[in-house]
Amino acid sequence: MNRAKIWGFTLLVLAAGAVNLYVVTQRSADQVLEQVGGSLRSATAQFESGARLFARQVSDVAVLAARDPELVAAVAEQTSESQRPAKATRRPSNPLPPVDVPAAAEKALRGAARALEVDASRAPLLAIASEGAVTFKVGDKVLTGKEPIVQAVLANPGSGRFARVEDALYFVQASPVAGGGTVAFGLPLEARWPERIKAATGADVTLLVGPKPVSTLPGPEVTAVVGAARKGAGATVDGGRLSPIRLPMNAALPAVPLLFAKAPAFRARFLALPGPEAPGAVLSAPSRALFEPLAVYQQLTLLALAVLLVTGVALGLLPERTVTAHVPRELAGAADRIARGDFEARVPRMSGTFGTLAAALNRAADAARMARVASGSLPPTGVAIPPATPANTLDVPMLAVPPPEEPAPGAGLFEDPFAAHAAASAQAPAAPMNGTDPAHPTPLPIVIPQRGSTARFQAAEPLAAQTPVRMPAAPPPPPPAPAPAESEETAWQGVFQEFLKVREECGESLEGLTWDRFRQKLQKNKDALVQKYACRTVRFQVYVKEGKAALKATPVR
User: Are 224 and 205 in contact (CB under 8 A)?
Assistant: First the structure.
């Protein structure tokens, strides 16, 4: 792979990684914000339901205490005594003890709390106002009645509210007493209640009580959360920005902010509570814990892309090396022999790409050899002809060269190499050689092949005592036509063997291919061509067509 391909592949992978990182971040960020909003909604529902239940318990205690018979009787008696005229002249001999309305009110409130199974041990607020006298008690502490909270609680009987008392958030309910007067009862919110909401929903609770809010948040975060929640006016708002996150498994790497997404630090909501001083509560759900897995995924992906970028650049800068393919020795040797003109060379069968190349070389060598045989430049047997010597020459009369075979027009794919020469000889008369009659030519020496040689006869140089004769250059005559039965049978057997060889080189199956079937096919084709072209015989040749062995039929006249 060259340098451009390496860098192109690297850029393609980097682009795919960046797109994947963006898509995953967008989807994950939406899911995280939905989870944060779900935690906030769950916390709001639990806070509101808990506050309503708590307020209902306090209101029930105040209403039940206001109906207590002893308290009603005490308030009525106190009212009647205040309306009775004073007698300065005479006092009763046995005066009744004064009515203790505050004691009766406290007794009635505690009795109602026990009856309703309300825990009144956590510094309850007990108050009674009758005939201008006000008694206000928070736990063990008794207020004078001049504090603003006293007037705020007792000013509107019949309604409950949240109020700050002793830096604690109380819910107080004031109820009117029959006969004149008002009784009030209140309890502070439980200190562990915000913790329970946080444990159940994951959201923090901040109670705006007194100068210092009560919150499950760390101190530095309370101001930012409360400020953002107040701006929302009761709606859910996103506050802050998520700080950079560091990989937990490697503290050496710097913290990286979240990419491709708007990630708030928290979502918050302000809840206004009824009361004279407008107390409230802020519910907030942090998002850092939910965004951390996404941040870790981003950092690991960016780290992997950076490593890939460095690796791709480094590989692209390396010098390119040329890898030489290993060519089998047999294939290389056969190709070299064929290149030098040895068309008898053959490549053994191979598999894969080298097998295809070997089959192609074998077919090319066969085609070149057959072309040379057809042109007469190569004997059919491929055996060299020995040189002419006086010992192997013999004077014989020159024989006339018979005319070559003429194939039917357009019937074959081979061209007769002697066609042009035969046409020229037919038009011009033969020139006398050495002033002699062409019918009685001068004997020429003929080379006698040595015993055991398969070479054909070839005209040799004349002996020194004879007059040299120069003959016009002409291609050698074609071999004499074989006998009708035996020669044709032998030629067809050679074609059959050649056909089997070519099929095997092309990788075709030889199953079911017999001599009898092959001979019948050739005879059928010969008969059809002889009848069609009125030719003497048909010459068959094996060739390769589209990677498969095939036969060519050439009519011969």
Answer: no
Strand order in the sheet with 237-239: 214-215, 204-208, 280-286, 266-272, 237-239
Q: What is the pLDDT of residue 320?
A: 65
- Angular region, 322: left φ>0, alpha ψ -120 to 50, beta rest: beta
Q: Which amino acid is at 40?
A: L
Asked whether 163 and 170 are in contact (CB, 8 A), the reply is: yes
Query: Which amino acid, 358?
Result: A
The pLDDT score that the predictor gives to residue 1 is: 57
How confident is the model over 42-51, as a mean pLDDT? 91
Measured in whole angstroms, the distance separating CA 67 from the mean position of its chain's CA atoms is 75
Other CB atoms within 10 A of residue 491 CB = 15
Q: What angle do CA 298, 302, 308 make, to 5 degrees?
A: 150
Q: Are 58 and 189 in contact (CB under 8 A)?
A: no
Q: In the beta sheet, which residues pair with residue 245?
A: 256
Closest C-alpha among 129, 79, 76 to residue 105: 129
Contact call for residues 275 and 186 (beta carbons, < 8 A): no
Pairing mode of beta strands 160-165, 141-143:
unpaired
| Cα dihedral value 103, 106, 108, 114, nearest 10 | -140
Alpha-helix residue ranges (DSSP H) falling in 384-485: 419-427
Q: What SS3 state is found at 285? A: strand
pLDDT over 70, % of the chain: 74
Q: What is the pLDDT of residues 366-388, one digit of tens each?
A: 888 787 777 766 555 444 434 44
Write down the pTM of the prediction.
Answer: 0.54
Q: Which helix (H) or strand (E) holds 540?
A: strand 537-545
User: What one-letter code names the amino acid at 139?
Assistant: G
Q: What type of residue is 104?
A: A
Q: Which two tokens stand for residue 179?
A: 């006969």
Beta strand ranges found along 131-197 (DSSP E): 133-138, 141-143, 160-165, 168-176, 182-188
d(CA 170, CA 226): 20
For CA atoms 192, 197, 199, 205, give the dihedral sign: negative
